[in-house]
Amino acid sequence: MSLAGKTAVVTGGARGIGQAIATVLAARGAAIAVWDLDLEGAEKTAAAIREAGGTAIAVGGDAADAAAVATSAAQTRAELGGVTILVNNAGITTFTPFENVTEELWDRLIRVNLKGPFLVTRELLPDMLAAGWGRIINISSSSAQTGAPVMAPYVASKGGVIGLTKALAMEYADKGITVNNVPPGFVDTPLIRQGPIDVDAVAATMPMNRAGKPEDIAYAVAYLASEEAGYVTGQTLSVNGGRYLL
Hints:
- Helix content is 46%, strand content 13%.
- The protein is α/β, with parallel strands linked by helices.
- It has a single domain (7-229), classed as 3-Layer(aba) Sandwich (Rossmann fold).
- Strand 4, helix 4 (103-131) and strand 5 form a beta-alpha-beta unit.
- It is globular and about 45 Å long.
């Protein structure tokens, strides 16, 4: 599944799932723009890709701010050319009982997790339309499929991502652009480790008796970004070790 000659943007690529996605896509030949608020972390990801023989740049900026997105896109195009693969991975979470959810917290989760993918997709879509080929992969969450306590804003925002995926898939299906989403199950990442969760205890309850790895998500994304997935659009490719079955 070669991606040689393609340029990919991975938002939230400084660590965790985003870092793994950027690394795997680069290994398949894509030139990678690692977008992240954490420019130092993005540069570490990009440097590791370059050291492995790939092509990558680090781009700092807020993927949920329209002006910053335009600036990041301009830098990416100037250094790597038009973008035909987009992975909307950047996101934040919360573990807050619903009655304690403030309007500010709700708006913050929706802004980053749902408005962000809207802004980045809107900015980069013209590149794909011009090329007559594109791949948009949105990282959602299995919590939007099952529900999850003390995570209402996160679940709502990721449910919106799944809906956005389906709408865009229908709108651009005849333009050579596919739009799919991957809802990770319980994946051992720095973000999860920051929460009030006993990672090992939860992992033991999974059907496969382990947590997912960021690479598990990355390989699914690589498939959806490939030529081989050209007839796959509007789909939810669940990567969750059996946690949720369609």
